[in-house]
Amino acid sequence: MICGADSAAVRRDAAGIVSAFRLLKPGKNSLTIDGQTVEGDVAAGDIQAILDYAALKNELIPVDCEHLLFLLAQASGVDEGELLKTEPALGEKACVGAVALRAENGEIWADCKKWTARAKELLTTAADKMYLYFSPVIRGLSGKSPLRITSIALTNSPAYNDQEALAAAAEFGFGAARAPFAVPATNNQEKQVVKDLILKLAGLVGLDAAAFSAEGANLQPLLTALSGKIETLQGDASKFVAGIKDAIGLKDGQGLDVAAGLIVSLAAARQSDASALTDARAKLTTFEGEAKTRLVTDLTAAGKLTEAMKKSPWFTGLDFAALKAWGDCAPVVVQPGRVSDASDFRQAPAANVMTPAQISVARACGVKPEDVAKTNGLVMPAA
User: Do 26 and 172 reside in the same domain of the chain?
Assistant: First the structure.
């Protein structure tokens, strides 16, 4: 579609910026591919198939200059939209706008949803037009995949022979052989933008692109290397996804983007579980402390635990479970119900001397007999 001139197929807003344009109409269309003319019919069913696919995807279609996104997507083996999902920074640099498809009078129209400031300059009625055509990338003409439009380019070299019809990427031609990668000859300023993007992408995937930065350098070898590198990265990603598929619950057909989302979710769940475990441990420690305090009170009241015992290293090292086990079998060393006095421990009323049995009980409880004697007003027997 001619975008540099006003026509019934191009609509503009009050500022003169393109707001909608016709992409495809039914009937005969001819394209020039590798110097040969190829003709084909676009049926109403084809129009509907493209619109149905767009409705199913429910995503805006990117607009770039001279099919840069198409070239990079082909090197990656994916559609342009999928490429932008994995490389959002590329979209910020390469895209000049985005459109949504709709039907009008049996034709496919594009409603412009986004334009960059630069694109607005190029597409106003008052601007010196650097680009004359909107050129869609139409995939699925061979019938091996759904018929769809995956991107639209601003270009001066349309493949459609009919100037009234929208230009299409020359790589797609009713079963024609694929054209080799090439950097299109465009306006010098826009050509440099495309080149800079290719060099930057090469750097992102670890390729040394310094030799291609000179003016007029042939970028074909770099594009070939870039294609191979992206293919390798895709293979590595596929192996990674296959390796973690069962561990993270990945379903058949789900790729790296879904895997990344699941990993993030699992990491968040693990963090939540760790926090919950920390809270549970803190609560358990508090509970055990309170339970031990109550047990100490009970054992003291029962006469099994004395103040001297509580000050010993033996008592300090006991947790609740160990103290409970000891308390279940410990003897009563102080009669409960009153503070013990010497008469509780005397065998002979006339002498406040600890008996051998009392000494044995004290030692069995891990307490020095001397401490028991002192607490209860007794004396140790003579050596």
Answer: yes
